[in-house]
Design goal:
mainly alpha; globular
Length: 301
Amino acid sequence: MDSLLGMIPSILMIVSPILITAAGGMICERSGVVNIALEGLMGIGAFCAASAHVLMESSVSGSVWIALLIGAFFGMLLSLVHAYAAISLNADQTVSGTGINLLVNGITIFGAQILFSMDRTKPYNMGMMPGLFGIYPTALVAAAVIVIVWFILYKLPFGLRLRACGEHPSAAASAGINVKRIRYIAVLASGFLAGLAGGCLVLTQTIQYTSMTINGTGYIALAAVSFGRWRPAGITGASLLFGSAVAFAIYVVNIPALSNLLPSEFFSLLPYVITLIALIVFSGKNYAPLASGKPYEKTSS
């Protein structure tokens, strides 16, 4: 029991980036735009946050928080590419997002070569230190994000307009809502949150950014959006499930009864197997916003 309780801080540390990214993906899809680029947006956020922290940690007080904001900013900036392609050009949203994921792999390695003369950032002192009860402050950031997102979506007029754009954009437009502007805001918000999540991940789970730092976390967050039925409470539960699976895969090596029974590679597969099973189970249930993934073209009256 004590060992399970001891895992809680690590579970929350792993869950936090997934939940923050999933919140951004949910906002984006509720507006009608699918954001496959979450993996890449996390990557650029992680690289920029890690680089900023390396360069500032010895001279700037509170560099870790500044680094997080820098990572979030560059995530938002890169998401503008996806927004322009998907909303202004009506490009295929899956292709656009996949292109960004591939682009980030090259950008981050190139940037690391320019800044640090190697394919990764220099190591840094652990950015985020555990606080009360060993809980990382990123868990509080994730909790604040999901509460704020819930409040905006369900308690503010803007949230109603955003959801209308994802369900019936033509009807929303006829009511005077600027559908494309709402979608732009949603995509940029998802980029900001994904970049923030990438920074949270790299500054808590490792001591430098490498091309393997994100390692599918963005795709897991994308699955959490679907598994959570595009609702804040749902994606919170899905993120806890997937994050717990990741944490278990890491900690299982310390449980002789299991580590001796099966190879460690089997447990490393668990998070992705659980994600795949969740997607299969929910593949036949259409909870997605009706206009999600469909370009909006203003019709002439």
